[in-house]
Amino acid sequence: MGNSDFQRIEGVGGFLRCLMPVHVTGSASVTYSVWLKLDDEQLRHANAVWTTPEYTDLTLRGEVANAIKPWPGLLGEIAGAEVRDAGTLPYLVAERNSLLSRVPSKSPGERPCLPPGLLLFVNLSGRFVPDPCQITR
Question: What are the tens digits of pLDDT across the range 59-75?
Fold first, then answer.
């Protein structure tokens, strides 16, 4: 089984592509495409409901399957996935007190912080501004 959203690699496992929005500053955000490793039963279920009305109720639990710069510690972390909109991929959901839970989401009013070593520039009113925040592990 395999397409741009699902992959099943014999001897390795099954994977589903999820969205990981990261709030940068103001209304700016970046959305990462992240693979979530799933057991075969969950992968089959996701595939079965992918184009049905039941898709909107899909929730999964697996393991982050790719390194995400600048958060290499997310690789292998347990995370969930949930559908927030029938027209999009599932969103990655953090486990409580995990590194993923400290990655700034697009939540309004949240103070944007990015990990040390990342110099991210965001276009604000025609200017590029470095983000001074840090996230600690």
Answer: 999 999 999 888 888 99
Q: What is the pLDDT of residues 30-63, one digit of tens each?
A: 889 999 999 999 999 999 999 999 999 999 999 9
pTM beyond 0.70: the answer is yes
Evaluate the CA torsion angle 60, 14, 71, 126 in order and state its sign. negative
CA distances from 27 to 22, 30, 101, 103, 120 (A): 11, 10, 20, 16, 15
Find the length of the chain. Answer: 137
Tell me which residue of 1, 98, 79 sits closest to 44, measured CA to CA: 1
